[in-house]
Amino acid sequence: MDTQPGREARITPADHARLLADQADRHTLTLESVLAVLRSPRVGDAAARAEAVEIASAALVDLRTSTDRQREVLLEPVAGAFSRLRADLRPLVRFGDLDVQFVEPPANGRALPGDVAHAARAVVRTAVLTLVDEGRANRVRIQWDCDGRNLLMQLRDDGAGTHDVQDDAMRPIAERVAALAGQMRVDSTPGWGSVIDVTVPLDPPVPVTPGPEDSDLTPRELDVLRLVATGVGNREIADGLGITVNTVKYHVANLLRKHGARTRAELAAHAHAG
């Protein structure tokens, strides 16, 4: 179990199995309670339905809360997370016209936090479905890797090669990656296809807590400040947020002015100081 200071503890698969068993017991109790109310001769039909709905609704709320909590702390082996992605995309492989090729990640790669694994699969599914909807690609190659600090994902297609990180198709994906404090780059060659590279950190980023002097910052300026604090350049910030490099420069200039900083290093130091 992870006990490093400042980080939420992660649970092991064995711990997760125990949680699932406990969850199954709670759901069994819920179903038994609903059946007991519906079968009771002492409760009228309308009252029985109302009571059953109330029991089921409370159980659904508990299920969603428990699922979200487990997703945040569960560790998934990177190979297992990739296998789940393959299962998610199996209908496209079996019944669609798109040839989906998978390049397996190293089996001994660092396990992924559950929330990262879940979001990474969603990013890939969205990208593949975008290619299917456009109908221009015949083949897409999906590769995952892990460098110990980041999950590295790449999608390569043989489509028209006109994608850009700022176009309507890619922007929702870029925004989701940015929400994970990740980076996304799209390289396209007309007539040959596009390559989408996504890097998602496995550890939560150092939070940037706005101080009193940050109260006049816009939400977008706070996003830029958070990424400047990680040390990435303007191009990476632009790709991660789905905006232009010139827009990033504009926000950085405003941040320097508002904080009285002369360099990006001073600005980053201010961000870390909170």
From TrEMBL:
The keyword Transcription applies. It holds the Pfam family GerE. One of its GO terms (molecular function) is kinase activity. SUPFAM superfamilies: ATPase domain of HSP90 chaperone/DNA topoisomerase II/histidine kinase, C-terminal effector domain of the bipartite response regulators. It comes from the Bacteria. Keywords: DNA-binding, Kinase, Transcription, Transcription regulation, Transferase. Residues 210-274 form the HTH luxR-type domain. This is DNA-binding CsgD family transcriptional regulator/signal transduction histidine kinase. It comes from Curtobacterium salicis.
